[in-house]
Amino acid sequence: MPNHQVLVTLSREPIAEKLIFSLKDQALKFGISLHSIGGQAGNGTYYIERFESNAHLDTTQREQLRTITANFNTDLCFLKPDLIAQDIRVLAMDMDSTLINIECIDEIADFTGKKSAVAEITEATMRGEIKDFKESLRRRVALLEGVHADALDSVYRERLRSNPGAVELLAGANERGIYTLLVSGGFTFFTEKLREQLGFKQTQANTLEIIDGKLTGRVLGDIVDGVAKAAHLDAVCARLGCTKANSITMGDGANDLIMMNGSGISIAYQAKPLVKEKADAAFDRVGLDAALLLIS
Question: 94, 106, 225, 289: which is the annotated catalytic residue?
Fold first, then answer.
């Protein structure tokens, strides 16, 4: 396989010549040259420009280049040299803080006055400081005991919003015949509503136990953690007769990394530093639908 990478700049504004010069200049300091591919293009929402490197960029070098693009309000992606856009068959994505603007469990906890306690555990888990996601989820869900089930609907109606570009991403993926999978460590109450709203082909998440109209503080069945997310993606790929290399994966937390590792394009959306460092693409300024430009 070639040793070079394809770099992609994505921005909501025209990409400045000064940014391109700064990128190429910094790369030369690494002993690497960048060559423009096809010039700047746009789709009415985003501007994109591609570059080919003559050598592999390591993690430190990539982060230095991302720091430069950030100064120009631009995101930077590193695509595999052998990626064939037409071979992408699956889009698999996380829900909380990736597809949507909230962590649902934190908002449910707000109805018990325990939002800060739950959010603290959530944050530590997403940063990778709490390694056992299953135990983390059980601890957080236990704090929801006694919450009326109506709170779930209130969270969905009053607080949950799709992140920018979500509608366009799903519409574009479905139009291209890409299989869309929403795989979440969150809850089926929300993933099912989003499946109906946005048109996901499949959703996988955790089921909250409800008895007499109230949450018991327990989860039913096996917990969907990072390993399970990856397994659901692998199962979809096997069913479609492809591999994980034929997928785009999107997430924001440490428990998404197993699913993202080895995919055709891994995208960290508004993600924790650890996730951005390991992902091919880091979307901090563009919307979710910018992913479609990476396979156009």
Answer: 94
